[in-house]
Specification:
single chain, alpha+beta, 3 helices
């Protein structure tokens, strides 16, 4: 590669405040922020000359308007995920109150009975391949780009939201 060389600091990175490493190495986010603000200075001056506020929300350094990606579809997707999370939590808590170690079929029946479509539902096995009872059972509901995952372990329910796997599923190996 021509024009690319590792600096002496590449083998001995400096951690700010430690006094070790190359004094020429960028220390931390402070050095990065300084470099960024220095690089942004011409753009800031240009925007000021054009009468635009580069720090204003919705504007870029060049004065162009940025798209608002925080509203609309993402808000409704977040609301839908929250609704599924509440449904999963309430349904699993009710089931776990009567059956601290529910079977796969019991979890599936309870969740489909609560309105969750079987096509978006995955439930782990309540028994191992050797016939032993599993320590916990998990259910996952695919909701857009989110997986709402609930676990029942000895009557205790935990629910969390994780991103969908690359396979488009919530469980590995499903």
């Amino acid at each position: 590669m021509s024009g690319c060389a590792a600096s002496p600091a590449a083998d001995n990175p400096r951690v700010e405040g430690s006094g070790e490493g190359s004094p020429k190495a960028p220390a931390t986010a402070t050095a990065t922020a300084t470099a960024t603000s220095t690089a942004a200075a011409p753009a800031t001056q240009e925007a000021a000359a054009q009468g635009a506020d580069p720090a204003a929300p919705g504007s870029a350094a060049g004065g162009e308007t940025l798209a608002n990606t925080s509203a609309g579809a993402s808000t409704s997707a977040a609301a839908a995920t929250e609704t599924v999370k509440r449904t999963l939590t309430d349904t699993l808590a009710k089931l776990a109150a009567g059956t601290p170690k529910p079977a796969t079929a019991q979890v599936s029946d309870a969740l489909t009975g609560a309105g969750i479509a079987p096509a978006v539902l995955q439930v782990s096995q309540s028994r191992t391949p050797t016939g032993l009872e599993a320590d916990a059972i998990e259910a996952a509901v695919l909701q857009g780009k989110d997986c709402v995952i609930g676990q029942v372990r000895e009557g205790a329910v935990t629910v969390t939201v994780l991103p969908v796997l690359a396979s488009g599923k919530c469980f590995v190996g499903s």
